[in-house]
Design a protein that fits this description.
Blueprint lengths: L1 H7 L2 E3 L2 H8 L5 H11 L2 H9 L1 H4 L5 E3 L10 H8 L6 H7 L4 E3 L7 E3 L4 E3 L8 H5 L7 H28 L1 H21 L3 H27 L6 H8 L2 H17 L2 H13 L4 H4 L4 H6 L3 H14 L4 H10 L19 H28 L6 H10 L1 H15 L1 H20 L10 H28 L5 H24 L7 H17 L32 E2 L9
Antiparallel strand pairs: 1-6, 2-5, 3-4
Helix pairs in contact: 3-11, 4-11, 4-13, 4-14, 9-10, 9-11, 9-24, 10-11, 10-14, 11-24, 12-21, 12-23, 13-14, 13-20, 19-23, 19-24, 19-25, 21-22, 21-23, 22-23, 22-25
């Protein structure tokens, strides 16, 4: 019995991690170039997800004057027609007037009979001014954003699954094409619902590029770079968010603004010649010759001589494959992966609702929308730098747990300082800023942590499901903020509870630092589901019998 067990645990298959390390190295010029190209996808990801800031900015409006009053200035007309009954609070809520004082000799209040005019001092046009999304129609802006986020979460899971089945590169290119085509359709749409429908399809493709580009990046690097690179590629998101302010400042027209971000996003079609398929995915799918060709080019790019590459490649033993088409149910195939994906989904939900709630909480502080947006985007970058430092010293799990706990403390701390008690509410704003940085660290580390916890065959599918949970959380953020009307402390209390729960749940997951990426689902069952350590260079035969290896 002992002999049989010993025979079954004889090493026979080197994991992909070793194939990449021994043939082209953990990180070289090739990996640097491909990672850089993939990181640029964060620009259109940021532009599409956050562009509502400039597509529907706060806009002052009022009732259009009758023809005989058209010679008046705006100030004169507003003084004549503005209903005196409006309080300053109502004025703020409406940001304009849905009714007007009758100018025909009496003081009755009547609905705007001739439509609306808008303050075009800052923005010449927006989707608000284009389709009169005011006075009962303002909720359509929120609905359009909810539909956009729904498209992103559908794209996360749909294209994530497709990328695991049909390959990373082909699905990524399909996403770029769909994103570009329907981006132009949205720009030219003369109807609001046509605009919303086109943006929904853009969002579906955008959700695909988000997941697939990240997974491709994490699959081409190894060693310590597997922690560094996936975090560094997040930086363009904040930069892209800030760049929107520049585009909007120089256009001031929503169609020109949307056209610019669509044109730049369409330039990623060049990637069909610039980026390769993921060699890790090709090897796992049994397409070794295709994977070898990519590694040959990578080795040459990294300065490794062809003879040396061939010598190293020939010494590698047979490697595990799984040619089956992955499905969503594979995420719950075994107890270990089901536990991991369930915990990760809850963690991503709490992280999404916390991050988007607090960013909206501080989003109304600045008076200059261009400056506030630029600073808000750049505020995420310190979190990425801190994340890069901490995960290498304290691990993925501890980094996430520590900063979510810090964020929980900050939310409780904000409650200790009543609003308006101190100049500029500097204590509250400082704590909110620390919380944003903490949650930025959390999101960066979670991307890496999740990618390392899931095996190659379902990594895109799992990342897509986690992104869906985050998007659901982001869609609920306005509801959490709305609780402020019931009791000012409720949103902050809920955020602190969410982050305390997030901290506890993360601690239940295994650490992935120094572990070889799992390739197939059975890898998770080895060593009690904890994965392989730094010095475990081979995968045991006993876990491959169902794959025929």
């Amino acid at each position: 019995m002992m002999d049989k067990r010993k025979q079954r645990t004889t090493p026979s298959a080197a994991p992909t991690e070793e194939w990449l390390k021994l043939t082209i190295g953990d990180f070289g010029k090739w990996q640097c170039w491909i990672s850089f190209l993939l990181s640029l996808f964060k620009f259109p990801i940021a532009w599409i997800q956050m562009s509502i800031v400039f597509l529907a900015p706060p806009t002052q409006f009022w009732c259009s004057p009758p023809l005989k009053y058209r010679n008046m200035t705006d100030e004169e007309w507003l003084e004549l027609s503005k209903p005196r009954e409006f309080t300053s609070e109502q004025d703020h809520l409406h940001n304009g007037f849905c009714d007007m004082k009758s100018v025909d000799g009496n003081n009755e209040i009547i609905p705007c009979p001739h439509g609306f005019d808008y303050n075009t001092t800052v923005f010449q046009t927006s989707i608000i001014t284009e389709w009169d999304l005011v006075c009962g129609k303002e909720r359509l802006v929120d609905i359009s954003q909810v539909i956009l986020m729904t498209g992103i979460l559908i794209g996360n899971i749909l294209f994530g699954l497709c990328a695991d089945r049909y390959g990373r590169k082909s699905i990524l290119m399909i996403c770029v094409i769909v994103q570009a085509v329907f981006g132009f359709v949205a720009t030219l749409s003369p109807w609001f619902w046509g605009f919303v429908a086109a943006r929904f399809l853009v969002a579906v493709a955008n959700g695909g590029t988000l997941v697939v580009s990240f997974v491709m990046c994490i699959e081409i690097v190894g060693g310590k770079w597997r922690a560094i690179v996936p975090i560094l590629i997040q930086a363009p998101f904040g930069i892209g968010f800030s760049m929107m302010a520049l585009f909007a400042y120089y256009t001031r027209d929503w169609r020109q603004f949307h056209y610019i971000i669509t044109v730049i996003s369409a330039l990623f079609l060049w990637y069909i010649w610039l980026i390769p398929e993921s060699p890790r995915w090709l090897f796992v799918k049994g397409r070794q010759q295709e994977g070898k060709k990519i590694l040959e080019k990578a080795a040459k790019f990294n300065g490794i001589h062809q003879d040396i590459f061939e010598e190293k490649f020939s010494k590698l033993s047979k490697f595990p494959t799984d040619s089956r088409k992955p499905s969503f149910s594979d995420l719950f195939k075994t107890t270990t992966i089901a536990k991991r994906i369930s915990l990760l989904c809850i963690v991503w939900f709490f992280s999404g609702i916390s991050f988007f709630t607090i960013t909206q909480y501080v989003g109304h502080v600045g008076q200059n929308i261009f400056f506030s947006t630029a600073v808000g985007g750049l505020l995420c970058i310190p979190g990425q730098i801190i994340c890069l430092y901490m995960i290498s010293r304290f691990g993925r799990k501890n980094t996430v747990a520590f900063w979510t706990a810090i964020s929980a403390v900050c939310f409780l701390g904000i409650m200790a300082f009543p609003k308006g008690m101190y100049p500029y509410d500097w204590q509250r704003m400082s704590l909110a800023g620390i919380a944003i940085i903490g949650l930025s660290v959390d999101l960066c580390a979670l991307y890496l942590f999740t990618g390392e916890l899931l095996p190659t065959v379902v990594r895109n599918t799992g990342m897509g499901l986690c992104s869906v949970c985050s998007r659901v959380g982001s869609m609920l953020a306005p509801l959490v903020i709305a609780l402020h009307d019931t009791a000012p402390f409720l949103p902050l209390l809920l955020l602190s509870v969410f982050n305390i729960l997030l901290t506890c749940l993360v601690l239940l997951l295994p650490e992935t630092e120094g572990k070889v990426l799992p390739e197939v689902i059975d890898d998770l069952e080895e060593n009690g589901g904890e994965g392989k350590g730094k010095n475990n260079n081979y995968i045991e035969v006993s876990t491959r019998e169902d794959l025929g290896v």
